[in-house]
Amino acid sequence: MREEIITSGRLNPNIDPHLEIWHWHIPLYLFLGGLAAGILFFASLYVVLGKENQFRGAVRRAPVIVPILLIVGLAALFLDLKHKMYFWQLYTTIKLQSPMSWGAWTLMAITPISFIWVAIHIKEFLPKWEWKWLIFKELELFFVKNKIYLAWVTLFLSVILGIYTGILFSAFNARPLWNTSILGPLFLTSGLSAGAAVIILFSKRKGERVNFAKIDIMLIGIELFLIVHMFMGFLASTEVQIEAANLFLGGQYTAPFWIFVVIIGMIVPAVLEFLELKKFHIPHVIPVVLVLFGSLMLRFVFAYAGQLSRWLY
Length: 313
What we know:
By secondary structure, the protein is mostly helical. It has a single domain, classed as Formate dehydrogenase/DMSO reductase domain (Formate dehydrogenase/DMSO reductase fold, Up-down Bundle). 66% of the residues lie in helices and 2% in strands.
């Protein structure tokens, strides 16, 4: 991929093609983190609302993959670190102004919670499951008894995790494309949409699938609104931000963004879900896969395109 920087309000191609190009690890990490946040958000939300039995797919079944998502995501992040043996230093301090500090501590808290969530619902998959150690039985009873409190904590942390995946980009002030407050809400909404799509796969009841299809259509609408709002903000801003927006409005990322992210990843699955609500027979796995693909591509496109825009110092 060719690196370009902003020079006198224009893109300059005369730059080292290997300069500061991120690999696939970071976009994958952000995608998996957002997806995990989306699943846990809905799982905890319906516990808080007292509707666990109505939405067993969301509360008990879909979260089973969350620990795997978080582990793979953290592994991808670890592979991207230049000084891998010093990752622990993130946990020697808390900096409220640092997105990385927020992300590190949120992941530290939400990862064990995801294991606890799966453990107290394991009988959904293994009805005859019995813990062999008494301490595990006691812990299970404790968390089941206090599930409402666990759900509130999970709900709070999932929102932070979802927003953090976008704020991690927007904190890079030197990149005009990333330097927007829209990325936090956009990535959170994208993660919620991906989470709702996965829950559709795990839902056994048609009513639950219909409910999450409606939720997903609404979230896709919000995503499209945020994208339009973001570009309107760029085009009304400084010259370098206009140039950054032009990467998607006629530039080299126009086709990948509008075809893979917006059309294939948002509009097409929204139309398919709408048709399904109108009693057309649409295999629900198709819009689910398209939503996940679009959510993944959103991270990849922004990760790579953002590195092409810089301020002139």
